[in-house]
Amino acid sequence: MQNYASEDRYIKELDPKKHEIALSTEDLHVFYGTSEAIHGVSLPFERFKITALIGASGSGKSTYLRSLNRMNDNIEGTRVDGKIMYRDIDINGKGVNVYEMRKHIGMVFQRPNPFSKSIYDNITFAPKRNGIKNKKVLDELVETTLKQAALWDQVKDQLDQSALALSGGQQQRLCIARAIAMKPDILLLDEPASALDPISTSTVEDTLLSLKDHYTIIIVTHNMQQAGRISDYTAFFHLGNVLEYDITSNVFQRPKIQATEDYVSGRFG
Amino acid sequence: MNDEIKEKLLKKSRATRSEFRGRIISFVCTAIIVTVVVSIFYFVASKGLATFFSNKVNLWDFLSKTIWNPGSTDSHGSPQAGALPMIVGSFAVTILSAVIATPFAIATAVFMTEISPNKGYKILQPVTELLVGIPSVVYGFIGLSVVVPFVRHTFGGTGFGILAGTFVLFVMILPTVTSMSVDALRAVPRYYREASLALGATRWQTIYKVVLRSSAPGLATAVVFGMSRAFGEALAVQMVIGNAALLPHNLVSPASTLTSVLTMGMGNTVMGSAANNALWSLALLLLLMSLVFNLVINKIAKRGKF
Amino acid sequence: MDSKKWDKIATGVLYFIAGVMILILAFLLIFILWNGLPHVSWHFLTSPAKSFQSGGGIGIQLFNSFYLLILSMLISIPISIGAGIYLSEYAKKNWLTNLVRTSIDILSSLPSIVVGLFGFLVFSISAGLGFSILSGALALTVFNLPLLTRNVEESLRSISGSQREAGLALGLSKWETVLKIIIPEALPGIITGMILGAGRVFGEAAALIYTAGQSAPPLDFTNWNPFYIASPLNPLRPAETLAVHIWKINSEGIMPDASQVSAGASAVLIIAVLIFNFGARYVGNHIYRKMTGTK
Ligand SMILES: Nc1ncnc2c1ncn2[C@@H]1O[C@H](COP(=O)(O)OP(=O)(O)O)[C@@H](O)[C@H]1O
Ligand SMILES: [Mg+2]
C-alpha cells in the first residue's frame, strides 16, 4: 500500500482553544473486504466552517466522507478502524446509536435522491417519524428549510406535487432542505453539484454559503474552482491518504506538498 | 443541551427498537418458509419410507415389479407394491410431451426474438402468459372432451392413455417452455449477433450457430423445467390417462402415472395401512424427482452464465 | 438463389408455428366460452350443485373459491413480504441465505399434489383441522409462498439503493426505511405479483382435494357467525372450490349434465383468470402512474 512519511504531508493543526472542533477523525482506516481504501486519516473539522475534500477520482474522498456518519456500515464486508470523535464520543465505537447520530450528522448524495413522495412529504417524512405531529410546526419547517435551500419561491405553490417532477438542481436543493429539516449539527455533501448544470451549481453553492452560519459543512468536490469559492479549509486526498490539509487559500495558492501543487495546477488528476 | 445529545447518542431509541423488531419479524417469516420445506421432506419421507421399513417391501421390487395391489400381499407375505407401471407412465408422458413441445417452443421463441421482435413479440407475449394462467383442471376438462374422443377416433382404443396425456401436457408446458426460451434467447448479447452478421454469416447461420448455440444452457433449463412441470402435473393427466395401474402396452391403452394414482388412491385407503404407506412412497418418489429436476436445472444454469 | 429460397421457407415455418401457438389459445378460449357461456346464468352462479340430477349450479363452490382465496392471501401476503424483505435487505452472503434460497427454489418446484398431500397429513390429520377451509387455505399458502416471496424480493431489489441511503441518512432505521419508503415505491410490482398469485390460487385444485375437501355442504347465507356450522364464514367446514368441482364431476361421472356444468364452471374460471391477468397489469400500471405523477 501507498504510505507517506510525515515530511511528505502537511496537516495543519487547529488549536482547540481558538477553533471549536465539531468533528474529527483519528487514524481512520477503511477496508473494503481485504483492500484498504483509506490508510489512516486524521483530520479536524471546525464548527460553522466549510471544509472541502478534494483529490482525484478514486482517491477515497467518498469512502472517507461516508464513514463519518457510518453509511459504510451498510455495505457488506466494509470495516472502519480508528476513531471518529463527535461531542467527546467515539461514534465509530460500539454501543453508539447510529440512527441517533445520523440525525446530527446529515448527508446529501451525489445524485439527487428525493423520495417519490410530494415535496412536502419529502421534508416532513423523517421529522414526523421522530414525533413531530403538529401541522403548524411541520408547515413552518417546510417553509424555513425550503427558504434556506433557496427553493421556496419556486415550489411554494406545488408543495403537494411529486418531487420527481422537479429539475435536477431543484431536486438536489430539496435533498438539502430535507437534510437540514432534521436540524443536524453537521452536513456531509458528496459532490452535490456534479450532476447539475452550471446555473443550478451556483445556486447550490450560494445555498451552502448561506447555511454556513448554522451548520458545519464537509463537502467532497472534484471541482477545484468550487472548493476555492466556498470552502474555508481544504484537504487533499491522494490514493487513500490526506497529503495536505490547510486553510483553503494556502492549499490553492501556496501548497506545501509537491503532489498537491501538481493536482491544483492541473498537472494530474 | 450538549449533554442531552451525548446521552441520547449512547442510548437505545425508537429507531433501534424498530430495527430490532423488523429484523425479528422478517427473519421469522423466512424461517417459516424454511420450516415448511423441511417438514414437507420430513413428513413425506417418514410416511413413504414406512413401506420399506414397516411393511418390508423390497426397494428393488417397488421400483421394478409391475403388480400394484398394495392392499394384498404376495407369496412372501409383503404387500404387492410394484410401482413400475406408474413410473413408466410418468416418464412416458413427461418425455413424449417434452419431445413435442421443445421444437414448438424454441421455434416460437426464435420467432419472437429474432424474426418479429416487435409485432410478433407483442402479440405472443400475452398469449403465452394467458396460456400459463389457464388452470390445469380446465386443461383436463378440454382433454376429456376433445383430446380423448379425438384419440379414440383416430387411433382406436378407449382414447384414454399415454397419448391423450401427452397431448394435454404438451399444451400445458408449451407456454412455460416458450417464455423461458424467450428469456434465454434475449439474454444473448446483441453484439454476438452483430459480430456474426458482420463476419458475413446469413441470418439463419447466425440464429443457428450463434444465438441458439450460446443460449443452449438456457434453452435446456427451459425444457427441463417444462419436464418437471409435466412430471408433477396431477389432475389434468389423471383425467385423461385412464387410471389403470398396468404397464402400458401401447400409447392408447389406459395407463397411470405417479400423480394419477396418488390423486385417486389417497382418499380410498386408511391412514397407516400398507396400501396407504405405499401411496406415500409414490409421493416420496415424486418429491425426489422434483429435487432431481431442480438439481439438473441448477447445474445447467451454473454452466450457462454469460 | 438457393439460400434465399431457404430463408423464405424457414421464415414461413416459424410464422406457421407462431400462428399455431395463437390458434391453440384461441381454440381453448373459444371452446370454453362457446360451450360454457350458454350455461352461465344468474341461477347457475348462485344455486347449489346437484349430484344425481341436472340443473345444479356452482354458487357454493364459487363462494368457497373466493373465501379460500382471501383467507390464503391474508396468511401468505404478510409472510411473503416479511421473507422478501429479509432476502432483499438483510440476508448476508452466507450458508444460511443459501439454505433459504434453495428451500424457496425447491418449494416453488414441488408438484402441487405433493403440497396438497403434505397439507392433508399435517393440517387435516395431525392438526385435526379435517377437510376444511382453514386446512385448504394453509395448503394454498404453502403453494403460493415461494412465488410471492420471490416477487416481493425482486420488486424491492428493483428500487435504487440511493433511496435506502436517503432514508438511513435521515436517521431512520433500515426497517422503517424499507417499510415506509422502499415498499411504497415497489408497490406496483408487488401488487401485480400478488394479483397474479391470486389468479394461480383461484385455479388450483390438486393442493385442495385432500385439504379443503371435495364436498360442498349447503350453506346458510343468513347466518354469518363463523362458529355456526353452516355459516359461509365457518373456517372449519369442508369446502369444494370451483376448480375442484370441475375435476370432481368429471372423474365421478354421476352428474347427468356434468359436461355442461364443467363447461360453464370452466368458463367462469377462465374469465376469472383473465380478469386477474389483465387486472394485475392494469392495477400495477395505474399505481405506478399515480405514484410517479406521470400521465
Ligand atoms: N463499495 C466498494 N467496494 C469496493 N471498493 C470500493 C467501493 N467503493 C469504493 N471502492 C474503492 O475505494 C477507492 C476509493 O473510492 P471512492 O471513495 O469512491 O473515491 P472518490 O470518491 O475519491 O472518487 C477506489 O479505489 C474504489 O475503487
Ligand atoms: Mg466519490
UniProtKB/TrEMBL annotation, chain A:
Sequence ranges assigned to domain ABC transporter in this UniProt record: 23-264
InterPro entries (UniProt xref): AAA+_ATPase, ABC_transporter-like_ATP-bd, ABC_transporter-like_CS, P-loop_NTPase, PstB-like
Record Gene3D superfamilies: P-loop containing nucleotide triphosphate hydrolases (3.40.50.300)
Cell membrane is among the record's keywords: yes
GO molecular function, one term: ATP binding
Keyword Flavoprotein on entry: no
UniProt cross-references to Pfam families, sorted A to Z: ABC_tran (PF00005)
Keyword entries, A-Z: ATP-binding, Cell membrane, Membrane, Nucleotide-binding, Phosphate transport, Translocase, Transport
Protein name, per record: Phosphate ABC transporter ATP-binding protein PstB
Record lineage: Bacteria, Bacillati, Bacillota, Bacilli, Lactobacillales
Gene: pstB
From TrEMBL, chain B:
Record domain ABC transmembrane type-1: where: 87-297
Xref: InterPro entries: MetI-like, MetI-like_sf, Phosphate_PstC, Phosphate_Transport_Permease
Transmembrane segment boundaries: 20-45, 87-110, 130-151, 157-177, 219-241, 278-297
Coiled coil: none
Membrane disposition: Multi-pass membrane protein
Alphabetically ordered keywords of this record: Cell membrane, Membrane, Phosphate transport, Transmembrane, Transmembrane helix, Transport
Annotated localization: Cell membrane
Keyword Nucleotide-binding in annotation: no
Domain of life: Bacteria
Family: Belongs to the binding-protein-dependent transport system permease family. CysTW subfamily.
Function: Part of the binding-protein-dependent transport system for phosphate; probably responsible for the translocation of the substrate across the membrane.
Protein name stated in the entry: Phosphate transport system permease protein
Natural source organism: Agrilactobacillus yilanensis
From TrEMBL, chain C:
Keyword vocabulary terms for this entry: Cell membrane, Membrane, Transmembrane, Transmembrane helix, Transport
Membrane disposition: Multi-pass membrane protein
Transmembrane segments: 12-34, 66-87, 99-123, 261-280
Coiled coil: none
Pfam families membership: BPD_transp_1
Subcellular location(s) per record: Cell membrane
Signal sequence, renumbered to the chain: none
Domain ABC transmembrane type-1 as annotated: residue spans: 62-280
NCBIfam families: 3a0107s02c
PANTHER family in the cross-refs: ABC TRANSPORTER PERMEASE PROTEIN YQGI-RELATED, PHOSPHATE TRANSPORT SYSTEM PERMEASE PROTEIN PSTA-RELATED
Family in the record: Belongs to the binding-protein-dependent transport system permease family. CysTW subfamily.
Protein name, entry field: Phosphate transport system permease protein PstA
Protein's gene: pstA
